[in-house]
Design brief:
Radius of gyration: 13 Å
Strand content: over 45%
Helix content: under 10%
Structural class: mainly beta
Oligomer: single chain
Order of helices and strands: EEEEEEEEEEE
Shape: globular
Distance between the termini: 40 Å
Number of strands: 11
């Protein structure tokens, strides 16, 4: 059973950068798509970025050009590099794993993901 642990959240000023990491357990990490979502109180969890098993990347329009998702299969880790942060990026960020091997469909939909991390808070001050 895949378990996910996020690292790297914190407080940063607008215009700054943070890098989130998500470490996954299991020996078959390279077979699965990974995603990042975020949620603020009272709102639905929303898609941020995803990376397929082939390393094809997908981004929400709100973060395109500022955030970069990547993966290191040797380390069972997925990253989210966040640059030019804005106060509206403030949220709890969740890492998620798809458990259908070699799937590249519907990676922007939270229903695709079965395993979730505990979340890490990102706060961007103005």
């Amino acid at each position: 059973q895949v378990q996910l642990v996020e690292f790297g959240g914190g407080l940063v000023q607008a215009g700054g950068s943070l890098r989130l990491s998500c470490a996954a357990s299991g020996r078959t990490f390279s077979m699965f798509a990974m995603g990042w979502f975020r949620q603020v109180p009272g709102k639905e969890r929303e898609f941020v970025a995803a990376i397929s098993w082939k390393a094809t990347t997908y981004y929400a329009d709100s973060v395109k050009g500022r955030f970069t998702i990547s993966r290191d299969n040797a380390k069972n880790t997925v990253y989210l590099q966040m640059n030019s942060l804005k106060p509206e990026d403030t949220a709890v960020y969740y890492c998620a794993a798809d458990t259908a091997p070699y799937n590249s469909a519907m990676l922007t939909q939270k229903e695709t993901y079965v395993r979730w991390g505990q979340g890490t808070q990102v706060t961007v001050s103005s």
